[in-house]
Amino acid sequence: MNRRYYLVYLPTRAEILITSRPEAVAALREDEPPRQILVGDRSFPHWLAAALARRARTVLAERRNEKDLRRVIVRAVRERLRWWGRPATFTWETWPPTPFFPFPSDLAAAVLAGLEGKILSSGEIHYLFRGGLPGAEGEDLLAELALRGEIEVMPAVEALQLDRAVCRRCGQIVLQREDCWFCGEPDCWICPACHNLGPATGCGTLYARARPAKSGRAVALFPPSFGFTLTPAQQRAAAALADFLRSGAEEFLLWAVCGAGKTEVVFSALTVALAQGDRVLLSTPRRDVAADLAARARTAFPSIGLAVHHGGHHEEENPDPLLTVATTHQCLRFYRAFDLVILDEVDAFPYHGNRMLYHAVARARGPGGRLVYVTATPPDELTGRLRDGRLPYVRLPVRPHGHPLPVPQFIRLSLRPGDIDREVPSALAEIIAATIAKGRRLLLFVPTVRAAEEAGRTLAKWGADRGLRIAWLHAADPEREAKRTLFAQGRLAVLVTTTVLERGLTLGPIDVGVLWADHEAVFDAATLIQMAGRAGRLAAAPEGTVYFLAARISPAMKAARAAILAANEEAAREGFLTTLATQGATPS
User: Fold this and answer.
1) Quick check: 280 and 323 in contact, CB under 8 A?
2) CB atoms within 10 A of CB 141
3) Residue range 468-483, pLDDT digits in tens
4) pLDDT at 523
5) 230-251 per-position pLDDT tens digit
6) Do 321 and 305 form a contact (C-beta atoms < 8 A)?
7) Number of H helices, E strands in the chain
8) pLDDT single digits (tens) 528-550
9) Taking the CA atoms of the chain, what radius of gyration do you get in angstroms?
10) What is the pLDDT of residue 417?
11) Neighbour tally for 163: CB within 10 Å
């Protein structure tokens, strides 16, 4: 429900308010007599009421000592209305006191508890209570809670200038105005960026409530339930992360190679945060990784109340959970909620380069909250701060089994788009044969959906003649998960894929090939490192082979190979490499 708002001036407080319930303002202080307040002869959409209040507050601050302050404020507001093309008049009226907060206290307490740490529309709040919050009365309750300062209220889209506004939910600059189905206005602001969470409009309202800085419920320090012992490299990284959590620093980077067991390191250090009574958010850009993190968190911390939010899945085992797992998109609903945010795969799509999600994660942190970045391939902004000494970090350069990372081999292959539609290049055929001879499977990356389909069909026909089962997939493939499962089970000899399988997966004893590896528009150094990181992850099969097939050796290919070599050199220098497979969980 999108309500109309009124602009209210309280002379005794020298304060400007906007509210959908001006009749309740006089009762804010029941010990005061009725007072005159300034109310327009019409109500306004929330975005316009907020713009008028912002202008009025500026005038109030600049000209507070003028004798006829009421006249000055009225003139300023009317000028701003003419600027917006919406003239209106204002009158002074006396509002008698009314009974304040005529709602059951348990309903108000439930609303406050449900909104804590979140920023939600009224529709989302009604959904939260599954119809237990009456429509119009619920809006009145929210309005009175806002007047009392118990919650914050703001237009979903707030106007900045005549042609620009900002969405208060996702932080995006909005340039779009159109006929509004909700308020009937012909030029209401609409935010298309976060529409998948529900409409965000200039006439709509968001309600927010920050959480207290600490939960006050410290948890006894205990080791997570892993069923194995951390390796020396993991112990060093966990200790460095724990030291950060005890310090006053604000941000930290855990730089772990692909398959290094970073989740176990994070969980081990989390005991420090929980012992301090911190509320913790584990966030990741991808819903499948979020689901996996949630399952592993339940196993590692069986006694901790857990909240899980990803895609259409929302689950809270405790009304005030200490540990929350969510995708970065779901962070759009959090508001100053967490003492510690751990952001996994910080360089992954769709988070990397997405200002909306940066805004969401930043707002999820409470005042004084801390942020830990976790990645195998930190973006330039983080590495720049790291080099300048402005970002503390720890490196985890080796996998739990202690073997070096497979170093990519460069193979020259002049292959134009479409050529593979006719035949399988001999170099690729030899790689497949060598992989099968070693008892492994080949995960073959290509840069585009079209390339995946063309190469997949050609290889599938070629493989059928040789008794090899070969398939292909991409993000839009309806059988994507089924094919991935078949490959992980060893029932496919080759799987051709786009970058959709580049991260977060352990697919068994495999080799990795990257076809058209010099296609830098898709295959940058970070992507190549992540794809190479699918090989050699298991202790039982640590020696996978990685092939970069291309007509030329691109700078990205060189950079990826150099980064992998550097990690191996560091692991050797620190004494973390061994020729024996050691204990360890499935790396993440």
Assistant:
1) yes
2) 21
3) 999 999 988 999 889 9
4) 95
5) 899 999 999 999 999 988 789 9
6) yes
7) 15, 26
8) 999 999 999 988 888 899 999 99
9) 29
10) 67
11) 8
More confident residue, 369 or 312: 369
What are the CA-CA distances from residue 173 to residues 205, 355, 356 (Å)? 17, 10, 10
- Whether 578 shows a pLDDT value over 90: the answer reads no
- Confirm if 327 and 344 have CB atoms less than 8 A apart: no
How high is the pLDDT of residue 559? 97
How far is Cα 569 from Cα 577, in angstroms, rounded to an integer?
A: 9
Orientation of helix 262-275 relative to helix 287-300, angle to 10°: 60
Average pLDDT over residues 416-431: 84
Amino acid at position 586, single letter:
T
Distance CA 40, CA 7 (A): 7
* pLDDT, average across residues 354-371: 90
End-to-end CA distance of the chain: 44
Distance of alpha carbon 209 from alpha carbon 112, whole angstroms: 8
Environment class of 31 (CB within 10 Å of its CB; exposed 0-12, middle 13-18, buried 19+) = exposed
For residue 382, CA distances in Å to 162, 359, 375 come to 36, 17, 10
- The CB density around residue 228, as the number of other CB atoms within 10 Å, is 12
What pLDDT does 27 receive? 59
- Which residue segments constitute the domains of the chain, with CATH numbers given? 6-95 (no CATH), 105-209 (no CATH), 232-396 (3.40.50.300), 409-573 (3.40.50.300)
Do the beta carbons of residue 76 and residue 59 sit within 8 Å? yes
Longest dimension (CA), the chain: 95
User: What's the CA gap between 80 and 118, in Å, rounded?
Assistant: 32
DSSP string, 447-501: SSHHHHHHHHHHHHHHHHTTT--EEEE-TT-TTHHHHHHHHHTT--SEEEE-GGG
Residues in the chain, overall count: 588
* 400 and 584 Cβ atoms separated by less than 8 Å: yes
Q: 190 with 174: CB under 8 angstroms?
A: yes
Position of tokens 């170099």?
Answer: 427
